[in-house]
Write a structure and sequence with these properties.
With 226 residues, the chain is mostly beta strands. It is built from no helices and 21 strands. A hairpin with a 2-residue loop joins strand 11 (115-119) and strand 12.
């Protein structure tokens, strides 16, 4: 759905041809939607001027979790279950000009997992640390910016300026809410703030606020200050 931010009214409803929506991302020219159905997954490119689907691409796996767009790159995060293992993350680079797959790359040798996010016009991966993703090869490229052990991101990761804000794993058995944390990428220092669990979050850079979607309590707004 496309929502008019002035009137809060639904301006367009775009069908996904029987698939379930997994994620949505935008770049300067397009809206990218990751979707999946029974035994298939794919990515659609939508023209924001017309609201029409102008290209579709089928992904090799059955399930796609995320789509991330930044600069001139688009990367889908697929999950695969092979050999009774999984979910194993596979990063799939999509050429935005031709809407074709340019590369697929498993994360790590032992069924690794990462979260992707857009940061300063580039695509980054968050796991035990932060590494940039090459949008043409789908490979992680160094150097890595480490997180503290037992406190890596769990619920969300957002980049603004030289800062990375994330929902840090609380440690222990993980039963407590995530702690909102800030990583200064220039110094590597990390600060921890309030406990605020959630499923996902978005950043409003103009107002320096984070909006956290929670499973059962609605949406929480966090003012970053500065």
């Amino acid at each position: 759905y496309r929502v008019d931010p002035v009137s809060n009214a639904v301006a367009a409803s775009i069908p996904l041809n029987g698939s379930h929506g997994a994620d949505v991302a935008v770049d300067e020219n397009s809206v990218w939607v990751a979707h999946f159905g029974k035994d298939h997954a794919g990515v659609s490119r939508i023209d924001p001027a017309t609201g029409g689907v102008v290209a579709d691409i089928a992904l090799p796996s059955d399930y796609v979790r995320r789509i991330t767009a930044a600069g001139r790159g688009v990367v889908a995060t697929e999950l695969e279950w092979a050999g009774n293992e999984g979910p194993c993350t596979v990063l799939t680079a999509i050429d935005p000009a031709t809407v074709t797959i340019s590369a697929r790359e498993p994360v790590g040798p032992d069924c690794g997992g990462v979260q992707l996010f857009a940061w300063n016009g580039e695509i980054w991966a968050s796991g035990a640390g932060l590494e940039r993703v090459d949008p043409m090869t789908a490979r992680l490229v160094g150097p890595s910016i480490p997180f503290e052990p037992e406190h890596s991101p769990r619920s969300f990761v957002l980049g603004v300026g030289r800062e990375v804000w994330f929902g840090a794993y609380p440690g222990g058995n993980g039963g407590r809410p995530d702690r909102i944390a800030r990583l200064d990428s220039a110094t590597g220092s990390i600060e921890y703030f309030i406990e605020e669990g959630g499923m996902d979050a978005v950043l409003a850079p103009e107002s320096r606020t984070i909006w956290i979607l929670e499973y059962d309590r609605g949406v929480t707004r966090v003012d970053l200050g500065g």
